[in-house]
Amino acid sequence: MKKINNNFWKNKKILITGHTGFKGRWLTIILKILGSKVFGISLNEKNNFEKKEYINFLTKKNSFFLDIKKRKKVEKVILKINPEIIIHMAAQSKVIDGYHNPIETFETNIMGTINILNASVKLKGLKAILVVTTDKVYKNNEKKIKFSENDKLGGDDPYSTSKASAEIILDYYRKFNPKIKIISVRAGNIIGGGDFAKNRIIPDLVKAWKSKKKLIIRNPKSTRPWQYILDVLISYMNIIELSCKKKKIDLSFNIGPFLTNLSVIELVLKIKKHFNDLKLIIKKNNSILEKKYLNLDIKRSIKLLGLKNNINMNVRIESTANLYKEILNSKNVNHMEQIYKKEIINFLSNTHE
């Protein structure tokens, strides 16, 4: 993986939507370390697991709490910030929540994205927009193929459909605003310390362990492209760098591991070794339809980023477990920020060409 170019990011004015979420928190700290001028837009979430699920690592003047579905408010804030780069991650991000709240999912993931893009058209100093969608944007017929960026988009549930729709909408804005690089990244399932969202297997595992309850596993045999949070975010950042430097670049990228060979139960058993006394129960939920098999073709990312098949997933899983324990024991926001910062500095120091 290419090293981060510190000079590129230093003093750059960056807007992150969803900056208090799982990926947003990690990205915020990375950019602060690199000396970027970081701003954030997030929803003011009411449900916050032990006050560790949605954390704002930015100052009050750089943080804006609003609903991205509110077009006028979004435009006012974005014009005020006047960013050079926008990283759009704010979303309704779970398949199950999409079934329970389809309208909210469509409004947030489609109209929310449109509101960000529409406001960006009025910015004069904008260089690039990175829009985070999902590996679930592809029409998945369970044929056990590796999806490439050119495969047909589709979705059998509100979440997948909303993200596939967002990808189509990006094409319009690319034609409408051709001077700005609008890149989409389609990442597989991400693990890492600090994710406490409901209905995600690792956060559910950690919360079950902490409360001394049994972990309920819905789809033990489902296979997903599991990857570590910092591997993903560094790939995002490298893509942004290159999109600003190159005249021509592909506009969508799959972000995933070289091998997708871990089922849900295999991943659980690996991380369970780090959480003593955790008990499991398999209880399938047939009312929620999720694809059993999902795999990504990442040749395009490998070629652009010079990726090598040298990631030890067992080490990433151990780091994830240790970080969860540290974060759960953190005393305040400042202490928590130091936990994130320490892991990032260590990770960046071991990232080579």
For the record, the CATH architecture stands as 3-Layer(aba) Sandwich
Estimated radius of gyration: 19 Å
CATH superfamily: NAD(P)-binding Rossmann-like Domain
Largest sheet: 7 strands, parallel
Strand content: 5-15%
**Share of helical residues:** 40-55%
Number of domains: 1
Distance between the termini: 5 Å
- CATH top level is Alpha Beta
Strand tally, please? 11
List the helices and strands and how they pair.
Blueprint: H1 6-9, E1 13-17, H2 22-33, E2 37-42, E3 63-65, H3 71-81, E4 85-88, H4 95-100, H5 102-120, E5 128-132, H6 158-176, E6 181-187, E7 190-191, H7 201-211, E8 215-217, E9 227-228, H8 229-245, E10 252-255, H9 264-272, E11 280-282, H10 299-305, H11 313-328, H12 333-349
Parallel strand pairs: 1-2, 1-4, 2-3, 4-5, 5-6, 6-10, 7-9, 8-11
Helix pairs in contact: 2-12, 3-5, 5-6
Describe this structure in words.
- The structure is a single chain.
- By secondary structure, this protein is of the alpha/beta class.
- It has one domain: Rossmann fold (3-Layer(aba) Sandwich), CATH 3.40.50.
- Helix content is 42%, strand content 12%.
- The strands form 3 sheets. The chain has a 7-stranded parallel sheet, sandwiched between helices. Strands 7-9 form a two-stranded parallel sheet.
- Strand 1, helix 2 (22-33) and strand 2 form a beta-alpha-beta unit.
- 42% of the residues are buried.
